[in-house]
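Batch job 17 of 40 flagged for manual review because the log was empty.
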Amino acid sequence: MDDRNIRRFDRATRVQTFGRDNAADFDPTSRTAQLFTQLDPIVAKLEAARVGQLRGAVGKPTLIDALSSDFKDIARTARAIKLDDPTFDDSVYRHPATSVETPVATHADNLLNLLADAATDTPEKLAAKAALRAKFVSYEIAADFVEDLRADRNALATCNSAKHSDNLEGVESTSAIDTLLGDAQDIITRLDAAIQNKYRSNPDKLAAWRSASRTERTAKKAVTTSPPPAP
């Protein structure tokens, strides 16, 4: 991706995060919730393209190592949480002591089911997941640790798709990326109308939305002027 597309991609991921953070405010069957859900596969495809462009043809061992690193961070933090709360079940976060693909992929899916918001989650479940993630973040794990886990899991899934290199070439092409970013833009435009209406009396949420949905501009280079010639 060029700089402009990276900024557009970053905007889409910020909007996605805003939707997940505020999912409890929306009826899961509402048009707004559906729009946020439609954004998820677009961001996943763009993330796969970004991973492919930055890393090149990454093999399964590298991707499995990345997931194992995610697992260790999450399991270590879960053990610390259990010290605070003996009723907390840290066993479900223990990473498999293997580099075999199937149990690694299964454990990643299980963690995402526990930690990541889903379109079918009730408001109560969304609130519970947000509180659970907050426990992990309180121990200084990266605030986007679930997004990192999802990206690594998606990269492994992409690697496993038929004719991997051909698929990556297709999704990485400029025209394909532009199409995906255009689709994301259309969704964000619709969301902007809904969010502005939803939070018209909530300046804090509106400010958060505007921050998430803006496209960052490239910093202008400073203009240097040559000193006048000496007399």
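Reviewer: the log was empty due to a logging misconfiguration, but the result itself is present. The chain has nine helices and no strands. Unflagging and moving on to job 18.
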